[in-house]
Amino acid sequence: MSSASAGTAPGTTRIASNLEWQAWGGKDPLFGVIPVPGKEKNGAQPWTDEEFYATGRADWGEFRQRWQRFGLNLESCLDIGCGAGRLTRAIAEDFQIVHGVDVAEGMIAYARPRMTGNVRLHVTDGVTLPLPDRSLSAVFSVIVFLHFDRAEHAAAYFREIARVLRPGGTIMIQMPIHHWPSNMKPMVRRAFAAGYGAYMSLRRVKAAYHRLWLAREKWSAFMQSLSYDLDWLDATLAELGFRDVETAAFRTQRGGANYSWVFARKA
Predict the structure, then answer these.
(1) What is the pLDDT of residue 216?
(2) What is the rounded distance in angstroms from the CA atom of residue 171 to the CA atom of residue 111?
(3) At a CB cut-off of 8 Å and minimum separation 6, what does 167 contact?
(4) How confident is the model at residue 12 (pLDDT cuts 50, 70, 90)?
(5) Quick one: which of 9, 109, 210, 262 has the most CB atoms within 10 Å?
């Protein structure tokens, strides 16, 4: 679900939020993906495989319908931050070939024996994608980009997505998005942006504290969160050659938060 490890090659982006996701992969892969109280591994009613993967099938049915309205080639798909394969297994019922990538070895180890034969799973550094240029018709991700520390980390992923996606291929990426009102005075806009920047700096300090405990193998249940400015997102995607960019927000029939998404097509 997150990003780069200590073994990141020189010149690439190191993403600290790997650490908490790797910890969840070792401690409780299913609850780490869907943290419903009582569904912990040692909880009153822990997740079963049947329940867990049924949620993925239900959610994917809704996601696929929305993606198909935008335009979707069902040849090959990449699931970024696949975790324990909750959605990956359902995605594989529609695509000819599916790749899932995740930084948590525990997540991938749990998912592998539960996937179908057309799924290829990879443990990654969270910065680079282990796939050839122009090898995919679709790229999907949910509950991943929101856990980065900085927008630059998402930009690094978008660069890799642009590389592996074929011309005409599309993306469906879940990521929190905000937009300052267009009628806001520049001085007020700058003040709001500065305030949000200060808030995120405090969040990063808090994250560093929790990661210090995780690095010392002391459990600390924490996940970072981040929202992206819409103007930044539009500019980043345009620079990488994406067009027909659309954003949407919706809640699944299963309930929960109202998530925002970006759809785009590689030119």
Answers:
(1) 66
(2) 23
(3) 134, 266, 267
(4) very low
(5) 262
Give how far Cα 90 sits from Cα of 87, 130, 145, Å: 5, 22, 21
The whole-model pTM stands at 0.83
Token pair of 16 as six digits: 């600290």
For 9, half-sphere exposure in the C-beta direction (CA atoms, 13 angstrom radius) is 4
Q: For residue 98, what is the DSSP state?
A: E
State the CB neighbour count (10 A cutoff) for residue 2. 26
Sign of CA dihedral 235, 236, 237, 238: positive
The model's pLDDT over 169-223, given as tens digits with 9 standing for 90+, comes to 999 999 999 987 777 777 877 776 777 777 666 766 666 666 666 666 666 666 6
- Pairwise CA distance, residues 132 & 16, whole Å: 26
Of 3.40.50.2000, 3.30.70.920, 3.40.50.720, 3.40.50.150, the CATH number of 18-182+222-266 is 3.40.50.150
